Amino acid sequence: MEKCKILIMLVLLAGLSPALAEEGERLTVFCGAGLTGALSEIGGVYENATNISVEFNFDGVPALRSQIEQGAYADILVSANLKHMNALKSEGFINNSTVEVFARNKVAIIVPNDNPASITGLKDLASPGVKILMGTKDLPAGDYALQVLDKLAADPEYGPAYRESVLSNVVSQETTVNRIVSKIALGEADAGFAFISDVSPQMVGKVTRILIPEKYNVVGDFPVAVLSQSKYPVEAQAFLDMIMSTEGQSILGKYGFIPAVQSGASSGTAEAATA
């Protein structure tokens, strides 16, 4: 039934697309940088099915929110947390009826493949001299990492001193999660806080992912929505439907995200959690 509904919508849009093409118009999608691979592939599927062009602006979600607030045009926002989506909703930028959680994610530690600091688990992050990267507190990856550290601080096995030791080892706070992954791959730091999905196919063999035990981890909701200013709300909603479709969810799973339809499941590519 779902597949049939999506197919009918795309067929109808394909009939409208010549007019859009003649006007030189396209869907503009503002998207969190960590979703580059998955959303680019979904965008390609959408373009092939509808002949409607999709133009992406990939950046940190705080930067995307700021651009929208300052008047930048976008049809769709794909976010890595609810905080920035809710803020834009309250400011009237979002068509509230279109908001959906399309995927979920968890925090992971990433290290260079040669792992020069010999990091094997959480406790190693507090060792003196370890160089750590994390996102700014406004970046979803940074916010979720701080929540993990708060959980660890509340456990007597680690405690508040552990959190402070880890934070004192942070040498840079990045504005996109892609920069964290790239810098770790280049060996510019010993470890970084990222998402389980951030070891992309291009980074396999360059970075190693260490999973965080479930009791300390957090599950982040990734929402998507059509903006109130969209000139093409029907086409934009069809793009959201593509993301939520079986094919879209399968693509997200391939890139390491937790599909929204499997909220209790973990990534099939996850390594064993290490304390």
Task: Summarize the structure in words.
This protein has 275 residues and is an alpha/beta fold. The chain contains 9 helices and 10 strands. The chain folds into 2 domains: 26-104 and 221-259, Periplasmic binding protein-like II (D-Maltodextrin-Binding Protein, domain 2, 3-Layer(aba) Sandwich), CATH 3.40.190.10; 105-219, Periplasmic binding protein-like II (D-Maltodextrin-Binding Protein, domain 2, 3-Layer(aba) Sandwich), CATH 3.40.190. The protein has helices at residues 2-23, 36-50, 61-69, 82-90, 140-153, 159-168, 177-185, 233-244, 246-254; strands at residues 27-32, 54-59, 76-78, 100-112, 132-135, 170-174, 191-195, 207-211, 219-226, 258-259. Strands 1, 2, 3, 4, 5, 6, 7, 8, 9 and 10 form a 10-stranded mixed sheet that branches. Helix 1 packs antiparallel against helix 8 (233-244), helix 2 packs antiparallel against helix 9 (246-254) and helix 5 runs antiparallel to helix 6. It is elongated and about 55 Å long. The model is unreliable at 3-8 and 263-275 (pLDDT under 50).
